[in-house]
Design goal:
Number of strands: 0
Radius of gyration: 40 Å
Shape: rod-shaped
Order of helices and strands: HHHH
Helix content: over 70%
Distance between the termini: 107 Å
Length: about 200
């Protein structure tokens, strides 16, 4: 089952895929700023809930360790009670002592094994949760970076297009008034002053 963050990221990707391409471009798209802002705002609101969820998983490490310790203590208590029972029987006192020591040693070894396994499992859960959150945040960072670069490129393309059309318009206007330029040239050659005799 995917998390709410993953679902929101999927929605953002689907929205980006559904956006219309920019005119005369195969890589740029037109993004509705309000809709993108809404998706990002929702993602920002859901992120703390997901982080709390994984913090609970990490906090379960203590519960796992406490459970393992309780089981270990119970096993040691049972082994100690069994030892006392064996020792109280005189005819098997020596053998009971050896067996008791072995039971206690086995219980301690098993308890240590449970604690070690619980610690490893808890650390693995913590590492997996941290890695998962890092992957999600990296994916989100990539989406935002890509969107920023696309917006910047679109802006630069717009300015370039506007400058290109301005130059064409200026050129067309100059072509409409070639006589004005010729008259200006003639006035420069004949200033129109009269010589007085």
């Amino acid at each position: 089952m995917s998390s709410k963050i993953e679902q929101l990221i999927d929605e953002i990707e689907e929205y980006v895929d559904s956006c219309k391409p920019q005119f005369m471009s195969s890589t740029n798209i037109i993004v509705n700023k309000d809709q993108m802002d809404e998706l990002l705002r929702e993602l920002r609101m859901k992120t703390p809930d997901e982080i709390k969820r994984y913090q609970k998983i990490i906090s379960n490490k203590e519960a796992i360790l406490n459970d393992a310790k309780s089981k270990a203590d119970a096993m040691i208590s049972e082994a100690t009670a069994h030892t006392n029972e064996l020792i109280s029987e005189h005819e098997v006192m020596q053998r009971a002592y050896e067996q008791a020591n072995q039971v206690v040693e086995d219980a301690r070894a098993q308890a240590q094994s449970i604690l070690d396994n619980a610690t490893i499992e808890a650390n693995n859960l913590k590492q997996a949760a941290m890695q998962y959150m890092d992957d999600i945040l990296m994916h989100l960072e990539n989406i935002i970076t890509s969107s920023t670069q696309t917006a910047s490129t679109n802006y630069e393309n717009l300015i370039s297009s506007l400058n290109y059309y301005r130059d064409i318009i200026t050129s067309n206007r100059n072509e409409l008034h070639p006589a004005d330029e010729d008259m200006a040239d003639m006035e420069g050659d004949n200033p129109g002053t009269l010589d007085v005799m």
